[in-house]
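Hypothesis: this fold can be encoded by more than one sequence.
Test: take the structure tokens below, design a sequence, compare later.
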């Protein structure tokens, strides 16, 4: 391994040190995917403007795996639903807390109501995570 590639590897590892991730899983009716995409695009753009390092929204594609507990079973998906897995990356938990406070107070999101969401908020799974391994 060259010195340059070793330095690049160390920089890659060190760049994630202390990063913090919010992870989410949602059950979304397939007919609401267009509305969900529009909503998440708006929220993601605002979240990034306030300083989040990364924002991803992923829709289920290969969900009925033969090992572990498949998402459809765990999420109790109805036949017309799919799974959204999303995550937001921050510098640290404190950074996440500051950004979330700004996002929650952003006037562009003032009209968002949990009753008007394109998914069932009661079935949302969410948590904050410290990075354990980053390659």
């Amino acid at each position: 391994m060259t010195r340059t590639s070793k330095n690049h590897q160390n920089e890659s590892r060190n760049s994630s040190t202390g990063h913090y991730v919010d992870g989410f899983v949602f059950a979304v009716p397939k007919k609401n995917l267009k509305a969900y995409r529009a909503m998440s695009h708006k929220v993601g753009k605002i979240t990034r403007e306030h300083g989040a390092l990364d924002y991803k929204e992923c829709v289920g594609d290969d969900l009925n795996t033969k090992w572990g507990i498949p998402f459809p079973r765990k999420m109790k998906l109805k036949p017309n639903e799919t799974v959204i897995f999303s995550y937001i990356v921050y510098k640290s938990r404190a950074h996440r807390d500051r950004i979330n406070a700004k996002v929650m107070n952003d006037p562009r999101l003032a009209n968002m109501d949990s009753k008007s969401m394109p998914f069932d908020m009661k079935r949302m799974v969410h948590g904050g995570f410290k990075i354990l391994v980053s390659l």
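Residues 18-130 form a domain with the Alpha-Beta Plaits fold (CATH 3.30.70.100). The beta strands are 20-29, 54-59, 81-90, 125-130.
Hypothesis status: open.
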